[in-house]
Amino acid sequence: MFEKGDFIVYGTVGVCQVDDISKTDFSDNDKLYYRLIPKFESNRTISIPVDTTKVMMRSIMTRREAQNFIQSWPNVKCKGYRNDKERPLVYKQIFQSGSCTELAAMIKEILQMEQSRKSRGSVLNIREKDGVKTARKLLFGELAAALDIGPDTVPAYIRNVTGCAC
């Protein structure tokens, strides 16, 4: 169970702070709920049962873990897919898992696809654009929270440390 004040990753919302743990006014049961405030959307709150298993929730990485993760960025390998129909299903699984390594691989893969298509005069489709946007929001939000920097500065931070674009 998380504690009040903890920062967690919550589903595809991203980094949230546990603002409160209590019974709700909108339910007659004795269940405890987390009240979550998205770190980068403070005008929104989320109530979720403490014991839910429907949405992934986990602690964010520590500062040291974030630094180590960024150091390992060049070693993250892109996945191979049998066909284009498999890719969206895998992306959905990645978002549900919240795996930082899988999110990084997805970001790198879509960047490679974008560069390849540009050279042929083509562009990413909307699903790929939305996918990389969500992956960046989740991963860069967590790294930003762990490093106490803004999410918009994470790509430059990674580039400065590793020399890699993201």
TrEMBL record:
Domain CarD-like/TRCF RNAP-interacting residue range list: 1-111
Gene3D superfamilies according to UniProt: 2.40.10.170, CarD-like, C-terminal domain
Coiled coil segments of this chain: none
Pfam family, one: CarD_TRCF_RID
Superkingdom of this protein's organism: Bacteria
One GO term of the biological process aspect: rRNA transcription
Protein's UniProt name: CarD-like/TRCF RNAP-interacting domain-containing protein
Organism in which the protein naturally occurs: Enterocloster aldenensis
Lineage per the UniProt record: Bacteria, Bacillati, Bacillota, Clostridia, Lachnospirales
